[in-house]
């Protein structure tokens, strides 16, 4: 019996050491991986849509202010907690305060839910990339194409499983050998593709049926100009909440991902520079996405095309690409390949967060853990993909929208749990642990934490109030 217990304890220690041995090679590897997590599909369609809907340049100004204050605070907290505790979310909060273990459990559940549908969205994007690569771009522009695809009982499942399989394979190969290696290639390529498409969009010209000529430069001006018409206090509050929710989801905060990635950061890395670089990369891609999409939509659809909302990527943009003529197919290929990179790097980070937590909970090795999770999420992805066909049903959500399986998972994780977790974490850090817990980690190697005073004010007073308002608004309590 003693021999068995000893071997068991050795095995447990080995598994924990295996997890802790995982790390990014350095600051560049960490920044690219973290930026890859932050730069997701939301940057490519949700940000441009909100910018067009919420006053163009006015939304951009609000968003930039929030990046430097609100986003900086939550991102700094997650990364610093991860490196200081060397634990993933489910253990990190317990390490900080045993009575707050429940917060780690809640945080762990967010990526668990998100992972059920993220590969499904990745599968949709992969399908469209395949359509453009095989020269069938005209079909993608037809009315009802997207609906017929997602309601098929076979095709969306196949593409979801393919995307999930690739994600699992990368995570299976570890932090440095899988996640960092992929991010080092994908993120620079993604940035180049976004810049190329944005540059091309500015050269577009199109004369509509009434003889009016619209240009990409006019679309860029529409995007950057603050539109103050009809602005009221309630309207500005809505713009503020939209910008805050976009930033909140974009930076991958309050879902355990940045805590997990932070736990892989070596002690000699300057977290101040790393946070700044992640902010710049994520915000830069979002701004470029707007310069890439809004001028193109404006040229061929005018301001009416801006109201497409979530269908912008899969309905409106294919029509825009088709209207470009022969060049449209090439631009479409570049766009959907870019979207695949953005979605894949985010999907990797979600699965890695789950994997790291499960390794700590069950004291299991990476490869075994990933294989088990892969089986679970291959099944989950198939079920969610069939939510538009075999398992279709509609539910009235508390925020007033109507949804089915994918929408329910997205609503619970993004609109309910993430704002609630962020609210609790600001209370824990700001009032229970005090801000010095994070500040000390940011100054670990003698670096100057330039935004230290701002961090103290934000984490204790501003962020909790903002998160409470966002939670109440997202859940429909605050109409």
From TrEMBL:
The record's section on PROSITE patterns has:
NA_NEUROTRAN_SYMP_3 (PS50267)
| CDD domains for the chain | SLC6sbd_Tyt1-Like
Q: Which N-terminal residues, if any, form the signal peptide? A: none
Q: Which residues cross the membrane?
A: 21-45, 57-81, 102-125, 145-173, 185-203, 236-259, 280-300, 327-351, 371-391, 411-433, 454-472
Keywords (A to Z) from UniProt = Membrane, Transmembrane, Transmembrane helix, Transport
| Membrane topology according to the record | Multi-pass membrane protein
The major lineage groups are: Bacteria, Bacillati, Bacillota, Clostridia, Eubacteriales
Q: What is this protein called?
A: Sodium:neurotransmitter symporter family protein
User: What organism is listed for this UniProt entry?
Assistant: Faecalibacterium duncaniae (strain DSM 17677 / JCM 31915 / A2-165)
Keyword Transmembrane helix in record: yes
Q: Which Gene Ontology cellular-component terms appear in the entry?
A: membrane
Transport as a keyword? yes
By its UniProt entry, which Pfam families does this protein fall under?
SNF
The cellular location(s) given in this protein's UniProt record come to: Membrane
């Amino acid at each position: 019996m003693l021999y068995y217990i000893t071997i068991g304890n050795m095995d447990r220690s080995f598994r924990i050491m295996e997890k802790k041995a995982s790390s990014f090679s350095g600051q560049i590897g960490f920044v690219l991986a973290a930026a890859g997590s932050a730069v997701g599909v939301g940057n490519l369609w949700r940000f441009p849509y909100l910018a067009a809907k919420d006053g163009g340049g006015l939304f951009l100004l609000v968003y930039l202010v929030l990046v430097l204050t609100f986003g900086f605070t939550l991102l700094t907290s997650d990364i610093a907690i991860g490196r200081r505790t060397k634990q993933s979310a489910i253990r990190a909060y317990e390490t900080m305060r045993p009575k707050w273990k429940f917060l780690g459990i809640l945080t762990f559940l967010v990526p668990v839910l998100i992972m059920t549908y993220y590969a499904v969205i990745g599968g949709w994007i992969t399908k469209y990339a395949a359509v453009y690569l095989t020269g069938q771009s005209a079909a993608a522009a037809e009315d009802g194409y997207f609906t017929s695809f997602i309601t098929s009982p076979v095709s969306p499942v196949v593409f979801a499983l393919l995307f999930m399989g690739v994600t699992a394979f990368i995570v299976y190969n570890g932090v440095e050998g899988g996640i960092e290696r992929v991010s080092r290639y994908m993120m620079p390529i993604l940035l180049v593709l976004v810049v190329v498409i944005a540059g091309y969009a500015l050269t577009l010209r199109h004369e509509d049926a009434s003889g009016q000529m619209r240009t990409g430069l006019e679309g860029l001006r529409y995007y950057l100009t603050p539109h103050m018409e009809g602005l009221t206090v309630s309207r500005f509050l809505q713009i503020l909440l939209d910008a805050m929710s976009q930033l909140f989801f974009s930076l991958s905060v309050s879902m355990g991902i940045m805590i997990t990635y932070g736990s892989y950061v070596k002690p000699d890395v300057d977290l101040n520079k790393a946070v700044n670089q992640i902010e710049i990369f994520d915000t830069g891609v979002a701004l470029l996405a707007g310069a890439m999409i809004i001028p193109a939509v404006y040229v061929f659809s005018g301001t009416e095309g801006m109201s497409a909302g979530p269908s912008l990527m899969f309905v409106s943009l294919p029509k825009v690409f088709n209207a470009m003529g022969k060049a449209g197919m090439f631009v479409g290929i570049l766009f959907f390949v870019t979207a695949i990179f953005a979605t894949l790097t985010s999907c990797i980070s979600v699965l890695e967060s789950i994997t790291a937590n499960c390794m700590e909970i069950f004291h299991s090795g990476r490869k075994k853990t990933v294989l088990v999770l892969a089986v679970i999420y291959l099944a989950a992805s198939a079920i969610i993909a069939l939510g538009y066909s075999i398992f279709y049903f509609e539910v009235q959500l508390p925020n007033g929208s109507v949804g089915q399986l994918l929408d329910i998972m997205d609503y619970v994780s993004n609109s309910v749990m993430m704002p609630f977790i962020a609210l609790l974490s600001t209370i824990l850090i700001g009032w229970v642990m005090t801000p010095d817990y994070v500040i000390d980690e940011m100054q670990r190697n003698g670096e100057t934490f330039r935004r230290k005073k701002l961090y103290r004010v934000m984490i204790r007073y501003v962020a909790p109030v903002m998160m409470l308002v966002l939670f109440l608004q997202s859940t429909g309590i605050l109409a």
